Amino acid sequence: MMAYLIRRMFYAIPILIGVNLLTFVLFFVVNSADDMARLHLGNKRVTDAAITEWKAERGYDKPLVWNSQASGMDALTDTIFYQKSVKLFAFDFGSSDSGRHIGYDISQRMWPSLALAIPIMIVGLAVNIAFSLILAFFRGSPLDFWGVVLCVAMMSISGLFYIIGGQVLLGKLWSLFPISGYDVGSNAAKFLVLPALIGVVSAIGSGSRWYRTLFLEEINKDFVRSARAKGLSEALVLAKHVFRNALIPILTGVVVVLPTLFMGSLLLESFFGIPGLGSYTIDAIQSQDFAIVRAMVFLGAVLYIVGLLLTDISYTLADPRVRLD
């Protein structure tokens, strides 16, 4: 197990290097520092002196990959590539284009994102699995038919409809929850209930339909027929045999999305005014703060690789037949 994990971590290094290089090319080669300065200062009536000053304040006035005017290691380290890209591997995110410390912002904003994403994942997983097991239990019946119709209809509705509809109905008309905002400590719960509820409901259609497909595939296998032949009830067969053997694809879907727990939900956090990493990324894109965008892209790649490692580990826990050699 340990040798496998070490090997996979070494495999992850070229992936992170590739993501880093691609990000560097997109932000500093395709889109030059002068272009970024003009976007921030305004394309009209911006002087060369203002552009030079803006780049100097943010360290964008250095050479890209090689500083011919420096000596020794400074020729490599006193460059945009080292300062803005290589340091990301040490999780040194530096400062944003607006002057804020990105690492500090991430450490503060990750907790609201986790407070919202974890309940959505746990409650949503329980609701989707329970609903799909019910549909599988009554497979071929009118309940199964209309349940699938409901899932398809819910899948076809945009996530913005759930957000705006929930804010209008539950927040404004019925005044059950605050429409937007956030607070610290236990007071944050009242601001998280509505977005968490919307996050769960909006995912029922796709989640339940996918889990139903997994359970129906397992129901038709020989070991399930053998369990029925032993006299086990249909409910026990579904819970003990079908669900257990469908854990591998379920874990694949669950563990891979674990990075989103940290990165936050872009739409929910933005619409409900939750100061998480999702809204942090959206605000950076809107304000064209490329330093934050670069940091979040790299962090997302790291978390995705961690999610893949956790997926492999979870396989051995769910199915003893799986061995990581």
Helix coverage percent of residues?
over 70%
* CATH-assigned homologous superfamily of the largest domain: MetI-like
**Which residues form runs of ≥5 with pLDDT under 50?**
none
Order of helices and strands: HHHHHHHHHHHHHHHHH
Main sheet, how many strands, which sense, barrel? Answer: none
Per CATH, the class of the largest domain reads Mainly Alpha
Q: Structural class from helices and strands?
A: mainly alpha
Shape: globular
CA radius of gyration: 25 Å
Quaternary status of these chains?
single chain
**What is the strand content?**
under 5%
At the fold tier of CATH, the topology name of the largest domain is MetI-like fold
* Straight-line distance between termini: 6 Å
In short:
This protein has helices at 2-30, 33-41, 48-58, 74-77, 80-84, 102-137, 142-156, 159-173, 189-202, 204-219, 222-229, 234-245, 247-256, 258-263, 266-272, 277-286, 290-318. With 325 residues, the chain is mostly helical.
Walkthrough of the structure:
The chain has 325 residues and is an all-alpha fold. The protein has two domains: 2-90, no CATH class; 112-318, MetI-like fold (Orthogonal Bundle), CATH 1.10.3720.10. It is built from 17 helices and no strands. It is globular and about 80 Å long.
Indicate the topology.
Blueprint: H1 2-30, H2 33-41, H3 48-58, H4 74-77, H5 80-84, H6 102-137, H7 142-156, H8 159-173, H9 189-202, H10 204-219, H11 222-229, H12 234-245, H13 247-256, H14 258-263, H15 266-272, H16 277-286, H17 290-318
Helix pairs in contact: 1-17, 2-3, 6-9, 6-10, 7-10, 8-9, 11-12, 13-17, 15-16, 16-17
